[in-house]
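Appendix B. Chain record.
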Amino acid sequence: MFNFTTQLPLSLYIHIPWCVRKCPYCDFNSHQIRNELPEKDYIAALFADLEQDLPKVWGRSVRSIFIGGGTPSLFSPDAIDELLSGIRARLPLIANAEITLEANPGTVDSTRFVGFRQAGINRLSIGIQSFNDNALIKLGRIHGRSEAITAIEAAKLAGFNSINLDLMFALPAQSLEFALKDLETAVSYHPDHISWYQLTIEQNTLFYHQKPVHLPNDDLQWRMQTAGQLYLAEQGYQQYEISAYAKPRQQCQHNLNYWKFGDYLGIGAGAHAKITDATGITRLTKSRHPYNYIQNSQANISNITKLTPEETSLEFMINALRLLEGFTEQDFIENTGLNLAYIEKPLQQAYTKGWLIKHNERIYPTETGVRFLDDLLSLFVS
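Structure tokens predicted for this chain:
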């Protein structure tokens, strides 16, 4: 059924689930700190988790590491150093592997950034969200504009050359002017990467359940998006994914591996993994609650799913169509182990609707396809 002819790239995701305070728009697996962070116990559980998964990837090297959350920058530099040292002792990393740490303003200072750099972190993703104090208050963030700017400057002084700034638009009561002002402020610090994405209200959030949130209407949201895309392009940032913009050759390699349907290990509370072998693709999910995860570190897999061919082809499309460069037919064959029969009919439907185009062997979404991505993807649901 599956016929894999090449070994897929492998990455490692590490989830650190604690935050100072849960943001009302956040639907990630994050938990407010109640007591002292159990750094030692959690790192020990991460190592036990990793060792449990190692037999699934024997002989394969890791191309990138991403430490996400939660707020990983709450962990001390010594803890991050212990974590990365333990990973290197258990897994081979390629030379100059991209190693990213998510950091939030208000949880870092220059000394902390220097420590992260010395521990082996070579890329930072700083969760700014906005430079507007009123917007940050509405979003429930623990930092303000001044803390955001201080964090960026401290990261640069610590020697980080690869920095992503995380921003949102279509915020409550936000105008087009203020959305673009956030981008202008971010660009003024010359980061090599900017993540700029639309705020959406997910069901598993405080905004959805308790607070009426008045977002800009669809027309204004679209004007924000197109104006922001134009501005970033003028400033030398290439949009390579729905919400990702980078200077030349500065795309996030870890996220590219997701979108190109590569493999990844996932360790930590609530982490997910995707592992490919000759029999197909296996999805693993780890226990969500951090204290259950620590206490059951030898048995923390909460779910194992073997993807069917139909699920595999759909998941490939969900990821590949986030990339503006799209994919080739050979990419589909190599990364899914399937033949083109699984997507030929929906591809033709998408061409007819003007949602996809094929040029120089690459299949990619049109501007309309990007705007109506959910409708496009629905064509590939069996």
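Further analysis of this model is presented in Appendix C.
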